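Hi all, a correction to my earlier message: I attached the wrong file for Malignant fibrous histiocytoma-amplified sequence 1. Here's the right sequence:
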Amino acid sequence: MRVPNSVVLPVGTHVDCCREEEVEEKRRDIMAKIAAMLVERKSNLAHFINNLEGSEEPEFYVDQWERLKEMENCTLTILNLVAVNCTDHRDIKKLEATILEHVKNEELFPGVVRVLPPVYRQVEAAIVDIAQSEEMADHGMMDLQYLLSKLSQCKHLANLGRELLQDILRYLHRIGLVVWYEEIKHLESTVFLQPTFLITMFKLLVRYRLVQQLESIS
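and the right structure:
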């Protein structure tokens, strides 16, 4: 809601836990609740803005007013909900195809067509090779400077600089090939070349009724 011109694709999981006739009913219910939430948000923002403009000393609230006006101007496009059975690989492929179809829609994403320099593809291919090599640990974690030195050993990447590598890593992070938390101080020098390891770790740490499960242990 705070991102200008954002596009949201709601995904409903656990279809396998529902009867077939329930799925469409739940889909309509979820979309109606999202629509109501957006209407309420717009109403609340207008109410807050009016309160600030009607205050006795509105000049003291200029910063708040500007932030609220920015939020009011953030358009939000909600796509039709996709219902999937996560235990069925065909449904996962269907979701993937739906996402790609929307992403390629230039009306939704005007800047989707962009030509990347060849070095982006070269670094991407080299990182895939490193991640799949036998010397790569299962956790897939690698120091940023060490990754740069490994990439620089490739003949066509000998002149690769740290700044360019960081730009490329931001792109690879966005497309999901690697995970790089550059905004977190303790992790800014670590690149996760195996994002699936993080998913596995989070599944162990973050789970439904975790507190109750821990409390049940004597």
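Sorry for the mix-up. The CA atoms of residues 182 and 188 lie 4 Å apart.
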